[in-house]
Amino acid sequence: MVRRHRQARPPHVPRRAFRPGALSAHKSLPRDLRRDRRIRQHGCWDHLVVAPLWVAYQANLGTLLRTCDAVGACIAVPDTAHYKAALAVGDTLGGRRRPCIHRIRTGKQRWIDERREDGWRIVAVELADDATPLPRLEPARQRTVVLLGHERDGVPDDVVTRADECVQIPMVGRGASLNVAVAGSLVLYRLAGLS
Q1: Does residue 124 register a pLDDT over 70?
Q2: pTM score, two decimals?
């Protein structure tokens, strides 16, 4: 005789709606997410920083802020009116829950050079010869800066040639590139070890 085990009903599924074997996963409720995830700003972990230093469109920065919150990364931006306005418009997380924002006041190239001198790995997201395809990108094992370029022109050539690694995102469509927020989010998830 084969003994059958009863499938337990998940606590959030009403008894009348439960059919054993019919569920392969269950949708998390907002209260469960609040209980299981951190509820406060994560502060600066000083490990993974995305630096969209040449971005033109404001909406992209708000999306990157949400990704930074999700993966525990920081964002570094020039301390200019353009970036302040973009972050204010795109910040849908609310001021108290915002990820760590590093304001760059020294100039972009000098800031990158200072990170490199301090032992950070510099990764540029760009289409380039000998670039690492995204599926082969290893999670960050040391402090890492991810450089993102202008939506049309990308990361400047002289910055790409000086990066420790260049990453490209394989595409099969007709478009030449993804927008900077999507590209940055894909790379951050890989580097954070979450994909």
Answers
A1: yes
A2: 0.77
